[in-house]
């Protein structure tokens, strides 16, 4: 798990896009929990999305809700969410870490919208770092022609092996919990 943690750590500095891929039940969420427990809440604003949405509007509502916005009246669109992320960054002086578990469920349209969100800047710096966690279908989805611009912006990616909840690695023949 230490190797996986060492590979995720640069994301916080570079504010780029990271992808973690592993089979179902092999410990991605455990890795995420351990990683987020080590992220200083005073330095980063973590925006977790554990149930990704299929439509961009619903995805924007999920992000807005994670930022504390009452989404019953919030007309979610890209510009409003960019404004929220930028305001969050400028107000708190903490970069946003947008973490999406089960990212293989996202549609190509939603993945492209997330790429566009990573373009937002404040103080000449990216206001959001994106981390996608998903099953082995995710790299295949990212190879679609429409997603090439996103795939080109992913310098940090890796496949994890299975983990026990205590952080120890499962034997290679037992990759599922």
From TrEMBL:
The keyword Methyltransferase does not apply. The keyword Magnesium does not apply. InterPro entries: AAA_22 (IPR049945), ExeA_AAA_ATPase_DNA-bind (IPR052026), P-loop_NTPase (IPR027417). GO terms for molecular function: ATP hydrolysis activity. Pfam families: AAA_22. Residues 14-142 form the ORC1/DEAH AAA+ ATPase domain. It comes from the Bacteria. Keywords: Hydrolase. This is AAA domain.
């Amino acid at each position: 798990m230490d190797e996986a943690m060492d590979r995720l750590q640069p994301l916080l500095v570079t504010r780029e896009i990271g992808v973690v891929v592993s089979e179902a039940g092999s410990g991605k969420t455990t890795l995420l929990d351990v990683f987020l427990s080590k992220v200083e809440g005073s330095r980063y604003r973590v925006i977790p999305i554990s149930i990704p949405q299929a439509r961009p509007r619903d995805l924007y509502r999920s992000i807005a809700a994670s930022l504390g916005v009452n989404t019953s009246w919030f007309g979610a669109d890209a510009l409003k969410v960019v404004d929220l992320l930028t305001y969050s960054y400028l107000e708190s002086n903490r970069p946003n870490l947008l973490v999406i578990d089960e990212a293989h469920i996202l549609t190509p349209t939603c993945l492209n919208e997330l790429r566009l969100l990573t373009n937002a800047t404040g103080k000449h710096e990216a206001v959001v770092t994106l981390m996608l966690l998903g099953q082995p279908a995710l790299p295949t989805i990212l190879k679609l022609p429409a997603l090439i611009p996103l795939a080109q912006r992913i310098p940090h990616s890796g496949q994890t092996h299975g983990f026990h909840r205590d952080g120890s690695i499962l034997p290679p023949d037992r990759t599922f919990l």
